[in-house]
Amino acid sequence: MNRDRIHPDIGGRPSTTPTTPAASPPENEVPVSATPRVRRQLPRPADLAPLLRLRPFEPDGTKRRLSRALTIADLRTLAARRTPRSVFDYTDGAAESEISLRRARRTFANLELRPSILHDVSVVDTTTPMLGRPAALPFSFAPTGFTRMMQTEGESAVVRVAERAGIPYALSTMGTTSIEDVAAAGPGARRWFQLYVWKDRSRAEDLMARARAAGYEALVLTVDVPVAGARLRDARNGFSFPPQLSVKTFLDGATHPNWWIDLLTTPTYSFASLDSWDGTIAELLDTLFDPSMTMADLEWVRANWDGPLVIKGIQTLEDARRVSAAGADAIVISNHGGRQLDRAPVPLRLVPDARAAVGDETEVWMDTGIMSGADIVAAIALGAHATMVGRAYLYGLMAGGERGVERAVEILRSEITRTMRLLGVNAVSELGPQHVRLP
């Protein structure tokens, strides 16, 4: 029998509300009464102390800036801030529409690294043979002109870092520190001399003799500059060497006072290997360099240089075979950092076929577009014996002088080591095509 539940109401009368069973919570719903509550309290000073620790202030501005640079791209950003526009653009820019440089960097960005897991990579060896001798890292410092204009420490700073890092450094014909002074700055470094062939062959012969007398190990003959490329950034900036003041450069200099102070308070910029020049870089190259040079001139070079010979600027497989047959100890697959012929071949794509074309008789190196240690590892995996880097260390030089170059090496070394470990290899010699796929 149904009974009404009796509830005493205000009037004391029984309630006639029918009895309704209590609703059960849904299966997955937690009753409110069972929800745990967060116990809150006022923070004590002892609890706040670990959270409020401030990073110690570094009074050395250069050290502070460089410590925050984690990649070569970070160094590039610092370099752009600390260097006048025309000087930065000379380093950063390329020929015409700069398609060659963009393609080279895009090729590195689009490749795929393929790791192999479960290998003991607690110890990694980055040593790489270059010209029959070990280099501590699989790259050398490429030759770059006008280096003191990037930052006043110039080539001397670069060779000192190369000596400490255990990697070779190639001094450019267009360098701003003499052959002998670079040798004195880095007496224990592996020093190479980069040569452009001039119309006045006697001058080139003199440079080779000086380099040999100063203990330079190898000659790097650059063959891709019969005439200067159309470097439009330089033309638009009115770039010249030494820099000339104009309203534009004066206003730019006002935002880079340290660079101008260095310019005005250190020895006058001049070419280390030739007489002074008053004009644009393109005019200088077209005046000095010999567009009539042919393969036959390699015999003339060999007659004046009895050490290792590197041919830099190879962009086709046929040329790789030709210079290898002519006795080159190494070739550099390079389009001059995109600074000569726009829409030139991408060096990284040529590496596997060039390695097959020359066999084991000639070492195959490459440059252009390298902005990270992973780029270097990929080039080695595709068949390069080693690489050369130019812009990467110049960004460091502009960002912080010798310490900036040191930071560039630290970044590249760290990236090379980490990439090798993640790929599952212990030594540079273990890298191969199984570790990289080129779309």
From TrEMBL:
UniProt superkingdom: Bacteria
Segments of skewed composition (Low complexity): 14-26
The keyword Oxidoreductase belongs to this UniProt entry's keyword annotation: yes
Binding-site list for glyoxylate: Y90, Y196, R231, H336, R339
Residue spans of biased composition, Basic and acidic residues class: 1-10
Region (Disordered): 1-44
Pfam families xrefs: FMN_dh (PF01070)
Active site: H336 (proton acceptor)
GO molecular function: FMN binding; oxidoreductase activity, acting on CH-OH group of donors
Positions that bind FMN: P143, T144, G145, S172, Q194, T222, K312, S334, G390, R391
Keyword Transferase listed: no
Cofactor: FMN
UniProt keyword list: Flavoprotein, FMN, Oxidoreductase
PROSITE patterns tied to this protein: FMN_HYDROXY_ACID_DH_1, FMN_HYDROXY_ACID_DH_2
Ranges where the FMN hydroxy acid dehydrogenase domain occurs: 64-439
Family recorded in the similarity comment: Belongs to the FMN-dependent alpha-hydroxy acid dehydrogenase family.
Protein name: L-lactate dehydrogenase (Cytochrome)
Lineage: Bacteria, Bacillati, Actinomycetota, Actinomycetes, Micrococcales
